Amino acid sequence: MPKRICTLGWDEYQALPLDEKITYLMQPDGNPYHTLFAQQFGLDLLTRLATLTNEIRAIAKSRNGTAFLSSLLAHKRAMLYFSQPSSRTFLSFASACQILGMPLGEVRDTAISSEFKGESREDSVRTFSSYYDLIIMRTPEKGLAERMAWVLSSSDRPIPIINAGSGQDQHPTQALLDVYTLLRSFEKTGGLPGKTIVFCGDLLRGRTVRSLSSLLLNYPGIRQIFVAPGPLQVGADVQEMLRARNVAFDLTDDLREAIRQSDAVYMTRIQDEWDNEKGESARIDTRRFTFGAGELALLPKDAVILHPLPRRDEIATVVDNDPRAMYWRQMRNGMWIRTALIAATFGCEKQINAYYRSE
Ligand code: CP
After folding, report:
1. Residues contacting 96, CB < 8 A, separation 6+
2. Is the dihedral of CA 273, 277, 279, 285 positive or negative?
3. Distance from the CA of 66 to the center of ligand 1, in angstroms?
4. What gap in Å lies between CA 180 and CA 191, rounded to an integer?
5. How does DSSP assign 295-339, residue by residue?
6. Which of 42, 55, 273, 326 meets the CB 3.0–4.6 Å disulfide criterion with 356?
7. Is pLDDT of 163 > 70?
């Protein structure tokens, strides 16, 4: 069992630096118990998860393999608690649970749960933990998944929580699938270390950028280029994190020049759901922050294009069939690495390794 947060009160726990908090979230085998932050994933864990993901993909190709995988967690149940809209994260986690044989429950609209009657989030999550063995949660509130993990770890029925997106701050499992996609994309071109990754779009409010930028710190020599209109440029917190780790990075509004220097371009949409006032984002000129046929012509031949999706018009559909467009595969990779994460959380890693070796 993991070292439990319950040894500390909330205020005491909250006051800890992130590095220390993380020690309370991990299991003795190095896998996460609660998955809350991208910073929980070091190089060793990322490498093991990527290997486990590859093994699961290979095992799932056969009927016997599929039956093996679906027997692993048939005795556990998962709850998908998504109080913010989602297609990919919800469905890929649901599929991941099904691959591992876990029956599912869901709350996607708090207007039809007892929160509508005034039940607190804390009581809701404790209620879920009475019926389920894992909670996967997405919320618009920064830090709520962390608070709920602490609540459960302080209760008589602690179960793991996976953060499937919290406010503008963290989307750790999106970063996992992004890194996994980059690792696969660069398998034949020297690997991920030393590459130049360009982020473009709404970098201020996009939690996927914040989490991926952090996860990339595990790979040496990566340069990060942030391309955005001034009001949406990446936040001071990300810049300070990169400076503290001596990571080379640039801020610019010149997408075309950045593309020429890129190994990967990570496009994002404008996150106007976070506007403080109606129409705030619409007043920002974002026309130069889109990727179309002109940008494709500038992309180096071994470079790739990623996008966490959903997109609006920041990648033209004409780009979709280019072999360097990875965003559809990236989305599917999410299902596989989320399967690996859940399997690792419940201690199935060695069983999967052994099955893979025996086939
Ligand atoms: N990338 C992502 O989080 O997509 P959804 O919002 O559809 O889950």
Report:
1. 335, 336, 338, 339, 341, 342
2. negative
3. 26
4. 11
5. HHHHS-TT-EEE--S--SSSB-GGGTTSTTB-HHHHHHHHHHHHH
6. 55
7. yes
Read off the pLDDT of each residue in 39-61 and give the average, rounded to a whole number: 98
Q: Is 117 designated active site?
A: yes
Q: Say how far apart CA 230 and CA 252 lie, in whole Å.
A: 9
In terms of pTM, does the model score above 0.90?
yes
pLDDT at 1: 38
- Measured CA to CA, the distance from residue 222 to residue 207 in angstroms comes to 20
Phi–psi pair at 26, nearest 5 degrees:
-100, 160
CA-nearest of 192, 179, 145 to 45 is 179
- Mean per-residue pLDDT of the chain: 95
Residue 137's closest CA among 179, 203, 90? 90
Q: What is the pLDDT of residue 4?
A: 54
pLDDT tops 80 at residue 321: yes
Q: Specify the amino acid at residue 272.
A: D
> For residue 239, what are the contacts with CB-CB under 8 A and spacing of at least 6?
249, 251
* Distance in Å, CA 80 to ligand 1 centroid: 14
The predicted structure's pLDDT at residue 215: 98
Active site annotation includes 34: no
Concatenating the DSSP letter of every residue in 246-294 gives T--EEEES-HHHHHHT-SEEEE----GGG-SSTTTGGGS--TTS-B-HH
Query: Is 21's pLDDT higher than 50?
Result: yes
Ligand 1 pocket by C-beta < 6 Å: which residues? 86-90, 165, 174, 308-310
Distance CA 1, CA 4 (A): 8
How many Å apart are CA 172 and CA 27, to the nearest integer?
Answer: 17
Q: How many of the other CB atoms lie within 10 Å of CB of 157? A: 11
pLDDT tens digit sequence for 250-303: 999 999 999 999 999 999 999 888 888 888 888 888 899 999 999 999 999 999
User: Which is nearest to 138 in space by CA: 169, 98, 178?
Assistant: 169
